Amino acid sequence: MGWPVYRETLRTWCVALLCLLDLSTAQISYSITEEVDKGTFVGNIAKDLHINVQYLESRGLRIVSGHSKRYFDVNLKTGVLFVNEMIDREELCSKALKCSINIEAILSNPMSLHRIEVNILDINDNAPFFHEKSYNLNITELAYSGERFPLPVANDADVGTNSVKTYKLSPNEHFSLDVQSGGEQTISAELVLQKPLDREKQSMIKLTLTAVDGGKPPTSGTMVIVINVVDVNDNTPVFSQQLYKVRVSENSPAGTTLIKLLATDLDEGVNGEVVYSLIERGSSTPSGLFKMDQHSGEITVQGNLDFEENAAFEIRAQASDRGHSPRSTHCKVLVEVVDVNDNAPAISVTSLMSTVKEDSALGTVVALVTVTDKDSGKNGVSKVDISGSERFKLTSSYKNYYSLVADGPLDRESASQYNIAIKAIDEGTPPLSSSTVITVHISDVNDNPPRFPEPVINVYVKENSQIGAVIHTASAFDPDVGENARVTYSLLESSKSSSVSSLVNINSDSGDIHSLQSFNYEEVKTFQFKVQATDSGVPPLSSNVSVNVFILDENDNSPGILAPYSEHGSVNTENIPYSAEAGYFVAKIRAVDADSGYNALLSYHISEPKGNNLFRIGSSSGEIRTKRRMSDNDLKTHPLVVVVSDSGEPSLSATVSVDVVVVESTGDIQTQFKHAPMKEESFSDLNLYLLIATVSVSVIFLLSLISLIAVKCCRTDGSFSRYSAPVITTHPDGSWSYSKSTQQYDVCFSSDTLKSDVVVFPAPFPPADAELISINGGDTFTRTQTLPNTEKVRLVHF
């Protein structure tokens, strides 16, 4: 059977046996010999893991190893695991009986991890050798048959069957060789005297000692043994036992006593005085590690004992007498080094992802964690914990292998990175620990739309403002980053208003809203549109905000005098009787203003003649009345110039001239009152003017009121809107007045009432005994009944 077939059969049986016994040290186990050529077949991962070869590349199969060298690699086309670098088992594992390399096969999409153990089989590439080329041995001629003499031990870098298995001695008539086995790795030989020596016949004997290993074919090494035959001392010191065993803790300080040996010699005098020493020739025990007192036989620690380097030592001790021809005996001391907890666990982290997406699924593997401890037993068993985030956890993959996986929803906007502390604690006394920190960066996904600070934006623009001026800047915030947070703005048309694109436009980058025309309050009082903010993510997300634009009135219209009077430039005549009493009604000047609010609040004054003390005019009513009775000193004709002014800033005005003529009797008043002949079948000029004025005022009032309702009361029945009105003060005598400063009021509309009916009262609600002021149209204010203090105030009809 060829080696490849034998290897494959052996691997198959080993895997099957380990799986049956549940003792496998990895998910897959392969075996190869050391020093095979680069590219040598190890195993078919795809076949053994039951993975379709076609998916190996798409799933990103990788081979990860904790070694500095990349000994193995995988062919993604065939799934074959092959040798990537030549492997020297002696360099990799030294004298260890079992030599293996643990690697991980990592697959993505979905992520999976498979442990692979590759056993490195030894080949017989090293021959046995002795540390010395020759060995001198003094043997007295009085040595008896059967006496034994220990020989140096040969070393072999190979292990198992390829290590030293036997010794051979060159043919001679005096000595034979006794080969002793102390285990698979410990083979020693002793020279046994078969025939007494006679120094007078032969004073020196040269023998060749050959060490042979168990390889196929075997290799060997030789040493020359020079035996000097000496005379005299015929008794050899004897140890109390041939094999001693002792235990000592690692890291024991220098001077610590291991054992005290005792050897006795039946001779007397100097031939019976015993001297102790350690034999270091060819020994595996490092020199200088132990020291023996030559007089007392006490062996003490001299160097540093480290369980992780050597768990046991074999010491060879010699006891010699002081005779002329010293005789000696030997024994073995087996030193077992007891482990102490002197090594903290070591944590190794292999990061699989530089960043983790915030929408990663639960169970996503972020990093691989390996915990090792050079100690043994409980001193090498570690407990691993993590801290720093509840979003991640450690799962045990196999023995001391762990995976750091996502265990909760991730949100980059809440936490852009996590510093996860991993701590490993062994079970020694006292316990030792080590820790490391893994920084996990969370990458952004477009999961947040832009957000406006408020659902509705109210913009107030003065009429006659400059075209192209920025009336407002829309600003939306997106908590994402990068392109996902880059916001652009656009306008959305509103079905309730005309084309918004003819009124305003918006800068897509800055959100600046520019006016495209100069607004006229008397034509447009308000309009609506929506602004949409869209991010640049994939797919993009967006949100809208409603923009209400309110045009603020400017005092750009002068008061207009209503019929039957005309503005400055013509003279109107009114007659009064000479007998008129104080307060006699002369005439009433009526005027309107196309503006609103204070800009339309009119006041009447007599500008000429100056210092007039005969007539007065109501500043708000426009009624001209006499101040006193007429006297003979008064003129018969009184030319008056009445100025009608609004309350805007600056104030605009109009003037009208009225000549008041004093007549003797009321009959003369009727005759002179007719400024033009009357037609019985048609309206008079005065009636026509009055009709036109009434209709104009009503239309203007209704249009203003309807616009106000449409803009500010687009809510459910009984809802409230804000309304600016003059501050109105009622006086104990029933009169009222208002100031030029405005105050915000809540306006309530009821769906079952006329939209021209408005109740205005101070926000939020009036007290139960408050008297409210209602707008009855135009500039006329009337007092209404007191309303109850309820959540929703019904509209009062009047």
Number of DSSP E strands: 52
Taking all residues together, what is the mean pLDDT? 79
Note the gap between the termini: 118 Å
User: Any idea of the CATH topology of the largest domain?
Assistant: Immunoglobulin-like
- Beta-strand level of the residues, as a percent range? 35-45%
Strands of the largest sheet, in order across it?
A: 48-49-50-51-52
User: What CATH architecture label of the largest domain applies?
Assistant: Sandwich
Shape summary: rod-shaped
Word description of this protein:
The protein is mainly beta and 798 residues long. It folds into seven domains: 3-121, Sandwich (Immunoglobulin-like), CATH 2.60.40; 126-231, Cadherins (Immunoglobulin-like, Sandwich); 232-338, Cadherins (Immunoglobulin-like, Sandwich), CATH 2.60.40; 346-442, Cadherins (Immunoglobulin-like, Sandwich), CATH 2.60.40; 456-552, Sandwich (Immunoglobulin-like), CATH 2.60.40.60; 560-675, Immunoglobulin-like; 696-783, no CATH class. 8% of the residues lie in helices and 41% in strands. It is built from five helices and 52 strands. A five-stranded antiparallel beta sheet has the order 48-49-50-51-52, with no helix packed on it. The protein has a four-stranded mixed beta sheet with strand order 1-7-6-3. A hairpin with a 6-residue loop joins strand 37 (526-535) and strand 38 (542-552). The protein is rod-shaped, with a radius of gyration of 58 Å.
What would you say about this model in short?
With 798 residues, this protein is mainly beta.
